[in-house]
Amino acid sequence: MVAPGPNLSDKAMHDYRLVHEAINNKSERAYAELMDRYRDSIYFMLLKMVNSKDDADDLTIEAFGKAFRKLHQYTPNYAFSTWLFKIASNNCIDFIRKKKKNTFSLNRSADQDGGEIEMDIKADVLDPEENFIRDQKIQMMQDVVKRLKPRYRTLVELRYFKELSYEEIAEQLDLPLGTVKAQLFRAREFLFQIMKNTEGSI
Question: What is the pTM for the complete model shown?
Fold first, then answer.
C-alpha cells in the first residue's frame, strides 16, 4: 500500500492504519471500526439527499460495500473519509437518477403559436418485452438468493421481495435492529460474490 501523504491529520492516519490492517490482515475488527467511525455521518448525508430513512439505510450499506470491495484502490494522498464520502455520494446520485427514470418523464412540445401540447408519458406500465425481461431478472435473482445460507436468505427475502422495513424485520425475527442491518450487509456481500461468479448478468 502507498505511504500516506504528509498532510493527513491524526484521525486520517488512524484510518490509514485501519485500512492497511483490513487489506493486509483481512481484519474484521478493522472493517468494523471503519464502519463504526463513519456509518452515522454517511447515513445523515445520504438522508439529506434522498429524504427516506429506508433508502438512506440501504445506500449506507451499499456505500460501505463498494468502499470495502475497492479498498485496495484507496491511495492515502487524501483522507480515507474524503474517499468514502465520494463513493457514497456518487452511488446516491446514481440511485436518484435511476429512480427518476423508473417513475415517469414528460416530453412536451408546442408549436410557435402556442397550439396543442403533446405529452409522451412514460409510466410504470411495461410493454410485454419489458415485462418478460423484468420477470427473467426476478427469477434469476431468486435463484441466486436460494444459494445463500438460510438466515441470510430469509433476511433478503423479507427486505427485498416482501419490502419490509428494517424495524419490521427485527420485530418479525425477534432480532436487534443492529443485527438485522449487519447481517443484511453480509448477505449483500455474499450475493455480490455469487453474482460475480454467475454467468450472465442480473
Answer: 0.55
Structural domains of the chain, ranges and CATH numbers in brackets:
10-101 (1.10.1740.10), 126-196 (1.10.10.10)
Which residue would you say has higher pLDDT here, 1 or 192? 192
Q: Which three cell numbers stand for residue 72?
A: 485496495
pLDDT at 136 over 70: no
Q: Using an 8 Å Cβ cutoff, are 15 and 81 in contact?
A: yes
Distances 100 to 96, 104, 133 between C-alpha atoms, Å: 6, 7, 20
pLDDT of residue 132: 61
d(CA 202, CA 195): 8
> CA–CA separation, 26 vs 184, rounded Å?
20
Cα angle value 46/37/187 (rounded, 5°): 70
